[in-house]
Specification:
The chain is α/β, with parallel strands linked by helices. It has 5 helices and 9 strands. Helix 3 links the parallel strand 4 and strand 5.
């Protein structure tokens, strides 16, 4: 299954977060959302990516955007990762891999998500998607912020 097509409604989901509460995508309407699927906590590229979200979080907030990093790691692992790396964004656990499958990011042979991005507008419509060709690559925040600025 490929990533959702821009112009279509984002598939809804509810996932547990490191903040201790579940996050439901449809309850975030009225804000832009960046879904950032990442393979695994504690890996080099994922750590760099989560730390960069923390460093640039104010820029995402200025654009009215909620950043939701999602991985297949369990909440205890994500909490440890967040604490160890001083990550400022809450992380979501798709331990059952349902959301990764629904969004077309799950690498079935590896049983974790490909690094992928989905920009969703205030009405809950997918506006931009990108899947990396290898898990060691990532988009820079400047590119992600440029896509969010297009939403106005």
């Amino acid at each position: 299954m490929p990533l959702p097509v821009p112009g279509t409604p984002a598939p809804d989901f509810t996932l547990p977060s490191t903040a201790g509460a579940d996050v439901t995508l449809s309850k975030l309407q009225g804000q832009n959302v960046l879904l950032a699927f990442f393979p695994l906590a504690f890996t080099r590229t994922c750590t760099a990516e989560m730390c960069s979200f923390t460093e640039d979080y104010a820029q995402f907030q200025q654009l009215g955007t909620v950043v939701l990093p999602i991985s297949v790691d369990a909440i205890p692992s994500l909490k440890e990762f967040k604490a160890k790396e001083k990550i400022g964004v809450d992380l979501l656990s798709d331990f059952k891999r349902d959301v990764c499958r629904r969004y077309g990011t799950l690498l079935e042979d590896r049983f974790h998500s490909n690094r992928s991005y989905v920009v969703i507008d205030r009405q809950g419509v997918v506006r931009w998607t990108h899947a990396e060709t290898t898990t060691g690559q990532r988009r820079e925040n400047g590119e992600l912020l440029a896509e969010l600025k297009k939403l106005g």
